């Protein structure tokens, strides 16, 4: 399997003062979960040299109801299917929940190459 090395997400400085780096298999669920978090938490156009992200931030001030949750799930699936081709996610794989007036998502995904299933929790919006 192909291994990749890059800056860990979330970005942090290690105990020796350097940036923490990660080396993982290309289809490692941990790496893919970090990738999904980056895609969902990045607004389209926010990164100048990279075209990744989602339109979820446009839903932040909408009513906290079932129709908004359905739209958020749709935006998550669209963003992941556009920018992370190594995983499969459907709207049924996303659970939204509230905690202290914030909305979070548990995204269950399948690594397409291996069939392995994993999940990632992420905050929606600010």
Please explain how this structure is put together:
The chain has two helices and six strands. A hairpin with a 2-residue loop joins strand 4 (94-99) and strand 5 (102-111). Strands 3, 4, 5 and 6 form a four-stranded antiparallel beta sheet that branches. By secondary structure, it is of the alpha+beta class. The mean pLDDT is 87. The longest helix has 18 residues, at 66-83. The chain has one domain (3-124): Nuclear Transport Factor 2, Chain: A, CATH 3.10.450.
Secondary structure layout plus pairing:
Elements: E1 3-7, E2 21-25, H1 29-41, H2 66-83, E3 87-88, E4 94-99, E5 102-111, E6 117-124
Antiparallel strand pairs: 1-2, 3-5, 4-5, 5-6
CATH level 3 topology: Nuclear Transport Factor 2, Chain: A
What does the average pLDDT come to?
Answer: 87
General shape: globular
CATH class: Alpha Beta
Strand/helix succession: EEHHEEEE
Q: Could you tell me how far the N terminus lies from the C terminus, measured between alpha carbons in angstroms? A: 36 Å
Q: What would you report as the Rg, rounded to the nearest angstrom?
A: 15 Å
The unreliable regions are none
CATH architecture: Roll
How many strands, which pairing sense, and closed or not: the largest β-sheet? 4 strands, antiparallel
Number of helices: 2
**DSSP strand content:** 25-35%
Q: Helicity level, as a percent range? A: 10-25%
* Count of the domains: 1
Given helix and strand content, the structural type is alpha+beta
Report the count of strand segments: 6
């Amino acid at each position: 399997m192909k291994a990749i090395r890059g800056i860990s997400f979330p970005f942090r400085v290690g105990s020796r003062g350097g940036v923490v780096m990660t080396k993982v298999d290309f289809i490692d669920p941990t790496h893919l979960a970090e990738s999904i978090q980056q895609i969902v938490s990045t607004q389209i156009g926010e990164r100048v040299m990279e075209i990744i992200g989602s339109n979820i931030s446009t839903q932040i001030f909408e009513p906290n109801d079932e129709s908004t949750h359905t739209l958020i799930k749709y935006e998550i699936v669209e963003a992941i299917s556009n920018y992370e081709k190594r995983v499969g996610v459907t709207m049924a794989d996303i659970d939204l929940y509230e905690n202290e007036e914030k909305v979070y998502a548990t995204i269950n995904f399948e690594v397409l190459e291996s069939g392995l299933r994993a999940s990632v929790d992420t905050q929606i919006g600010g």
